[in-house]
Each structure stands twice: as structure tokens, then as C-alpha cells.
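#structure-requests
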Amino acid sequence: MIKYESIYAVNTAKMRLLDDKRNRYHWMDGTTRDTDRMTVFTLEQQAEQDSEHNLQFLLELGRKHHQSILVFTDIKIQLLGEYHSVPVMDNLVTESWVKSFSSFNNYKNLNVSRPRREASNQGELVTLSMWKRCFTVPALQGVYDVESGGKIKDRRVVIQRMWDLGFAAQRGRPMTVANIHTVGERSELEDITAMAEHCRHRVEISAAAKKMVNNFTSLNKIAAWPGYW
């Protein structure tokens, strides 16, 4: 089961302490720089242990259901593979976890998000996302190979692995899998890429060609795929 309480407390305290641009404390009841420093001092080690627990839990879940890639960030968990995404969803967020998190949510004003499933022609993606940073401490964020458990550090390898399963990569640090409802799947991106290349020499004389190239460019600004890194 995914742990979150100590992770949320430490990440939130550190975010406030590191934010030098504005004073977050003058409108917060009972929270000061000193209380945030104490939170980090007392809970940071527990948050690191809980983050490691979450990582190992997710890797084991992925191996059990033949997933290939784990995206693990403070606000997002993604498991990507060729199939078996339904049992991944069922085991990622169980009824008991939802009950526990909902109680915590009512106290901390977090959102409870059900996992979302998307399928391409080559693979299936499960995404669980939150607004608050409660899944891991920053040091463990990244894209992992499920089988080996190792972090994939080469961004082009990350992009190619996601593409092989039918998805583009969402730009950012770390990269995540681009949701189909936001960007599109591989076959659709291949089509718009081919059309953009075909129309590129006509952008000055054709409004349709210009719109096609602009559409391609807008997608490529937020997502990457082989050849368009």
C-alpha cells in the first residue's frame, strides 16, 4: 500500500522553507518557519523510508503484472506495459487505501484521485496523480525499468521505450508518459508528423499547411518522440 503522510509533511514543509519569493507564514495558523524546520528534522528520515517503500511496492506490482516502465514522481505514478492494466489499477488503489487516504484528505484538503487507464495500439498506461507532493521525496523521482528496478537516465532511451509502447513522452524533469487525451497516441502522432513534414514548405502560401505545422509544433513543445526529441 502506498504511504503518504510523512512524505507530504516533509515535502510541504521544505517547499515553504525554500520559497524565498513570498512569505507563506503570515496567513497560516500555527505554522511557522520553526515548526517546518522541526517537521523536516523529525520526519525526513521516515519520509525517505516511506518513499523507498512506495518505490519497491510499485516495482513489485509492475513485475507481477508484466509492466515495463514505472514513472515515479512526487505527484504522479505511472505504470506502462503491453497489457494487464486493469489488475494494476485494482491493486494500486485498493478500497482500504481510498478509505484511509480519504480520511487524511479531509484533514489536509488533498484530492483523492482514482487511477486513469489509457490504451494505445501497442500498450496500456495506468496513471495516478495528485495535486500535492505525497508519493516520494525528490531524490527518488525518475523513470524506472520495472524488471531491473534501475533508473533510466538517458532521456532518449526513456522516449524510445515509451514510444515502443505507443505513447509519447511528456517533457519535464523527470519525463512522464504523455496521456493520450492530452497529446495523442503513437499512430496519431506519426500521422500529424508526416503531414507537417509534407506541408512545411507551403506554410507561407497555404493557411491549411500553416495550421498543420503549427498543430505539430504545439504538440512537440509539450511532448517528445523519436526524431523529435
